[in-house]
Amino acid sequence: MPSRKNDLILVTGGNGFIGAHVANRLAGGGHRVRVVDINPRRYIEASSGIDIMIGNLCDPTFCSRAINGVKIVLHFAATMGGMGVIHSANDSTIYNENHTMLINVLSASLSAGVARFLYASSACVYPDTLQEVGNVDVSLRESDVYANMPPKPQGLYGLEKLHAEHVLQQYTSRMEVRIARFHNIFGPGGCWRGGHEKVPAALLRKALAAQRIDDFPADIELWGDGSQRRSFCFIDDAVEAIVRLLWSECREPVNVGCDHAVTIQELAEMAIRCAGLKPEQVRYSYVLDRPVGVGSRNSNNELIQERLRWTPTTSLEEGMTRTWRWIADEADQMLATLEGSELSLTLERLRRSEKVDLQTEAHTFAILLPITSRGSSHREDCLDNLRNFARSLLSTTAYDIGRLGMRYHLRIYLAIDHDDVFLLGDRPGGVNRAESMLRTEGISQIDTLICDHPRGHVCALWRDCAQRAWEDGCEYFTLMGDDVTVQDPNWMSAIVDVFADIAAQEHVPDGFGCVAFTDTSFPGMPTFPVLNRIHMDIFGGQVIPAVFINQDGDPFLYQLYRRWGCSRMIPSRINNKVGGSEDARYEKASAADWTFGPLDEATSTVEAWLRSRNPNVERKLALDVIIPCYRVTLTFMDRFLALQPSSTCVVMFIVIIDDPLSPNISELVRRYGSRPDVRIRVNAANLGASASRNRGLRESAAEFVLFLDDDVTPKENILIEAEKVIRAHPEAAGFVGNALFPVADTIATAAIHLAGVTYFWDIASKRADDTDLPWGVTANLIARRNVADGIEYDIGFPKTGGGEDIDYCRRKRDYSISHGGDGFHAAPSVIVTHPWWNLGRRSYWRFYLWSKGDGGLIARYPEFSYRETVPNSAELLACCVALAMGGLASSLFPATANYSIGVAYFGVRMILALFMANILHDLYRHIWRNADRVAQIDTTVTGMRKIAAIVESSIIRIFSEFGRLIGMIERREFRNIGMSFDWFTNRAGDGPRKEETLNRLQRVGLWLFLVTLAISFE
């Protein structure tokens, strides 16, 4: 079969040693290559253009998907290794997994119409009886497989390889088969530690450890007495043989190896020389109770030389030297992240070879399970709950535990209070009812911890169980309760896959992160998290800090790893019968301020650990969006929850619904309630915007929060722009964004602008370079959250708003500056569009109510307040109304009726003159004096409509001022009447105050002139 570049070639095991080298060689030659492997990690980088699929070839469905469209298959995938793996204890696992893979790949290949199939066999197919003597060379010809009948290969590994050859030979009429029997291939890019490595890599690693320890004479461990004889073929030579075999017409099996054998002792001495050590610097330690394999094995290469014109060209010495350089580089990268005792222990482990038990090498999940008989209506309820849990656990893990290729184990750690008489009995050594129940249901791996903690301290029980499981070597830690049921199968493999995805996407070590179940009793909340032992290693065996009692441990772990984008929620469901969002069997006790000190300290610990191992991994910015929501308008919510951050920022949307009777709540929860990045909370009653924002702050664990009103339309890039300003000024108390309005195309909307009530909504553009803005409106405001300053919105301000945003910003700003930070920076690129209130229809009550609230700032901030020379229009209006009403009331008395009616009439004329004076003055300001400011307003209103808008703006301003006056009277702040608040908080100098004083004087002067004029015409 000639080589055709367009044919798709599949390399199974293509992330492994031989497969990776072969895949790169084929891709480098212009071939289309697909790699399939169960392990996402490879030691050498894949050539460009290679398609990589990760999956289990013991799964026939995956095999079919992987082989779809393939014309040529090279099957290298196998459960294998050196003598640390290929021994009798692993025989059954090796045979079952390897043969299942072979049958699945072969079946899928036949179905897909594969034309050629190259199979990686092994020298282990040759009979043990030909290889027992170690002091002479044994040259194994391909025909020697059948030298003694029946064939007796080396162990079940060799037997499976021989059976695979036989099976393949049955299908030579349907596809071309090529078989290569490999003899000890070695070189860079292969496993070099952990028990799966071959002997050259193991000896080079031991020599390297001896060199790095620098304590001579150094012990070099050898399995056996060192007299075993082997030949070793360098990887480059083996790849050349494979490529020639693939495109040849050679249909019989051929040896691929070197035909020059050495003893293991000689190979060890060669490794010592590669490390630059002298013979007198080492002493050999012979371990005679470990697997050593056959006594002597060597490849006879006559057939391959004849058929393929191939012979190895790389000497053993050269191959060992090149492999040494690669292993030294790999080891240096690993050791560079270690220091102290950790470095010493690692080097000591590198001096020893490991014997691998494939069953104990499984992914072991520790189920951390506190259980109590207290708090239920009947003591027996806890055992009923436990029975249901056990059955759900067994049914949902059966496939994972029984599958081939990937191995999974369960181990339950029960935590029982020492004084729980029902579960433990009233005598030492009594029957453990909980453990007996689990064993009855078919769970055998159980460890019971008798704990002495205060009642209700569930987190302490979790800590005890997690530490024991960590000490026992478990890989995954699942925090559960005795009243839960697991609802979906294969959750163990799903969790392992998610951790692998996290590692690939975020470039962190495999196992770094937190994975949570989907809790159907508390949707969207990351309850029942799963951790890898990496977390336990980072924190020295403590799963969560001691500050946690029985609440908040789950979200703490999720929020911790969220700061690297390494928290996930999987679809696999779990149901919490008691607890969750409802009442628990114990008094709930939250950890005080865990989102501040405890979370920040844990973050620093993880960051330091990660920096020493993966210095290129940067922590992401955690930004939460808080939306106090009364209207629950779904179109707006859809826009909010569709916003996307950059890849360096993680965002959670916190929606606080302030109308518990809103008919849209159920639909909002249906659409978004299960998203882990969306948290929907409903107030028990209408508490107001400030209280809702405060609840959002308490729900958040982010570094910064972005407050948005529930009726704004944010720009699509708002989260990206928010991240930019935060990263540019990380010490800021917060950032003031722009809240723009649609074009003012009506008299009413133009009047709102002209009245000045929206001036600060786009202050970020007006003062774009300001690093200490006075304040910002909460429609679009960013604030630092991760400081325990105790600052929230003051609910003493009106529910509908007015002054609370200024008060919040001032207190946040003052705290930040007093602790070495900055104030609020302008963020003009952080933009939302706010709709016109009431759909642009006239309604002045909003501005009246705002002013009722913000008038309270005068008493709170006397440093920003000042007494005016003359009253404002609302204060004058109140006096005029009082005069008119007083005259009208006095007219009821006949003795003074004529005079009183005159006074009332005069009061009315004063009111009319007051309105006329304000209108005339505003016309003067907007058309003449401050025409440049008006020109900046985004409006299409011109001509007489503009005049009408100016007239209406005067009414809005007076109405607003009147609300401020009424608020002072209601709060009995009588001394503050006649005072003004500097909205710029002294940041703009005397200009604003002087202008306000000038406006008042001009309006009062014009008013007095009009009053005098009116009197003169009587």
UniProtKB/TrEMBL annotation:
<keyword id="KW-0808">Transferase</keyword>
<dbReference type="InterPro" id="IPR029044">
    <property type="entry name" value="Nucleotide-diphossugar_trans"/>
</dbReference>
<protein>
    <submittedName>
        <fullName>Glycosyltransferase family 2 protein</fullName>
    </submittedName>
</protein>
<feature type="domain" description="NAD-dependent epimerase/dehydratase">
    <location>
        <begin position="9"/>
        <end position="257"/>
    </location>
</feature>
<dbReference type="InterPro" id="IPR036291">
    <property type="entry name" value="NAD(P)-bd_dom_sf"/>
</dbReference>
<dbReference type="InterPro" id="IPR001173">
    <property type="entry name" value="Glyco_trans_2-like"/>
</dbReference>
<dbReference type="GO" id="GO:0016740">
    <property type="term" value="F:transferase activity"/>
</dbReference>
<feature type="domain" description="Glycosyltransferase 2-like">
    <location>
        <begin position="625"/>
        <end position="722"/>
    </location>
</feature>
<dbReference type="InterPro" id="IPR050177">
    <property type="entry name" value="Lipid_A_modif_metabolic_enz"/>
</dbReference>
<dbReference type="InterPro" id="IPR001509">
    <property type="entry name" value="Epimerase_deHydtase"/>
</dbReference>
<dbReference type="Pfam" id="PF01370">
    <property type="entry name" value="Epimerase"/>
</dbReference>
<dbReference type="Pfam" id="PF00535">
    <property type="entry name" value="Glycos_transf_2"/>
</dbReference>
